[in-house]
Amino acid sequence: MQILVTGTLLGGTYALIALGLTLQYGAARIMNLANGETLVAACFVAFWLFTSLGVTPLLGMVIIAPAALLLNWLIYTGLLRPLVRRAKHRGMLEVDSILASFGLLFLFQGLMLLIFGGAYFNYRFLAEPFSIFGSPYALNRVVAFVAAALVSFLLYLFLYHTRQGAAVRAVAVDPASAPLVAIDVSRTAAFAFALGGALTACGGALLSTFYTFNASMGVLFTMKALIIVIMGGVGDVRGATLAALILGVSETAVASLIDPGLTLAATYALFILVLLFRPQGILGRAAA
Amino acid sequence: MLRRKFSNLLVTAVMLGSTVGVASAQETLKVGVTGPKTGVQTGAAAIVYWPNVQLWVREVNEKGGIKVEGKRLKVELVEYDDKSTPEEAVKNIQRLATVDKVDFIVSPFTTGINLATAPLISRYGYPQLVATGNANDLRTFVKQWPNSFWLQGKASDLSTGIVDTLKTMRDRGQVGNKVALAYVAEAFGLENVDSSKPAFKEAGFDIVYEASYPLGTQDLAPIVSGAKAAKPDAFVAYSYPPDSFALTEQAQIQSFDVNAFYVGVGGALTSFGRRFGKQAEGVMSMGGVNPDDPAYKAYRERYKQVTGQDTDYWSGPVVYASLEVLEQAIEKAGKDRAAVAKAIKSGTFDTVIGKVSFEDNILKKLWTVGQWRDGVFQGINGQGVDGAKEPVKKPTWN
């Protein structure tokens, strides 16, 4: 039971890391390698808001999310849209966006190093025991999980039960045909990219309550997010959430029952299994 | 916070600009430094390495410089980023020696990079005062590179310090026989476990739980619950800073109460005491100083003034002391590198960690374990150290 709860909580953390990238890669078709940097930047902002202004990270998200939305929208329209226009096919866009966001990664990392230095940061927020089925768990992780569940649910509602969401899905499935049903592909993609950035930033704000972070840690988060996004099926929010939960639970189970040293091995073993037997992702549809 | 950082940056920029201006005007002592400004070691270096180099250069230049043959020479610092990789560090040393033609170098950061650069540094005849690295077969290294000096002792001394402390506590009836062991699955953790496990066994301790975790993991709830289930009397983790924080927080959340709780690197950071406040009371960690020593106290204060941060209770002062040793040896022997190395070998030096001297190029003064008491990290075990406090039983998390 304890393994299940700890694993589910960890899955929530992973979902927070990965949901943003799912949208960015799935709908906007941008493989954003600077995703982890967005997350770490949000960690820093949350840290700064909390330690110098006393704004709790939960409240801080009200500021962080719109700011990230705007910033990512600007990045998309300013930097990535020209790439999208130029790209003759999906493969070309993928290569170009990987290269461009690779550059962005270094730019963001350099900026954060310049402003905050390279030292480790953390702070204490809701680091209290919270009892579930008689066992104590960290309250900040429980809060992050609840937020992750809420965000996934809202995202699901948005994508599957609103017009705008349907447009995002249409763009994800077939950007070439979407204009036929009067969808402004360019605008919708920009919106999906910006929304993805905002989600990642929310994840960062929540993660900063229990992770120790520094300016050069973004890559770790990007790696994790990539694995989850690919496992879940590119662009599939439900798949990514499911993959995050599976990873969280299996890592915790391996750590508790076999050996904590093997958690990474378990992650990659699962990854390979998915790639071998369901290359389109757990819930992904095979390419037509 | 942000503003202060930013103004620090401006000050540094202005200072850099002005030193360059001065350089062309008068003779200076060129000192080269290569260390991580990016890459995996950035976090640690930003706390214990760079600020100390900065502080030292500032202190020396405010005094008017280092006295060399009757003249005072200001220090001109040449800095490179090694990106946390040995290849880059080797290139930097090469450049410092041949292009910048620096008079002396500050020894690089971490064991791996010090070992990787040692052959080159020794070929150019620079004294290498290793303040952030250690190894087990130091004598072989010293034979190979006679200009290398080691300020952090043997690796096994550092990892077995806690075994010794637990033995003392057991003899007094403060702690039982059962130890839970956790370590990061990377060179640092593996080496420490390799040398401490036999020592635990020899001392008659019973290792009731043992687990490693991958580098970079901060999700350590399973380790803490596993250790807790084994009902140990002491918990020992050879961990890195992020995991040291995570383990301590998890232990509180799961009310994992032991009579001795020890984490590896990171526990001696001032930010550790600040983050955990009263909960830190009694937590033990690798490292230590004598915080009541007036030299350390004065250093701690100046450090805060100049860098705006707090120094730590372990490596930071050692890094600073290594620079003081270099400075005093240069004042004694002049610009000639071989003469300076000789002066380091035989001299006694006044530093922020007290009076120090070398025996076969190894510093015979090493803090191995410290413990948090009333918000201060007190050294409780070491070799050739003064002012070690007695260890106490850890109170329950409250």
Structural commentary:
The complex is a heterodimer of chains A (288) and B (398). Chain A has 288 residues and is mainly α. Chain A has one domain. In chain A, 73% of the residues lie in helices and 3% in strands. In chain A, strands 1-2 form a two-stranded antiparallel ribbon. In chain A, β1 (129-132) and β2 (135-138) form a beta hairpin. In chain A, α2 packs across α8 (218-232) and α5 packs antiparallel against α7 (185-207). Chain A is globular and about 55 Å long. Chain B has 398 residues and is α/β, with parallel strands linked by helices. Chain B has two domains: 2-150 and 292-352, Rossmann fold, CATH 3.40.50; 157-289 and 368-383, Response regulator (Rossmann fold). In chain B, 46% of the residues lie in helices and 22% in strands. Chain B contains 14 helices and 16 strands. In chain B, strands 8-7-9-10-11-15-16 form a seven-stranded mixed β-sheet, with helices on both faces. A four-stranded mixed β-sheet of chain B has the order 2-3-1-4, sandwiched between helices. Chain B has a three-stranded antiparallel β-sheet with strand order 12-13-14. In chain B, β13 (354-359) and β14 (362-363) form a beta hairpin. Chain B starts with a helix and ends in a 15-residue tail after the last strand. Residues 13-24 of chain B have low confidence and may be disordered. At the A-B interface, α1, α2, α4, β2 and α9 of A face α1, α2, β8, α9 and α10 of B.
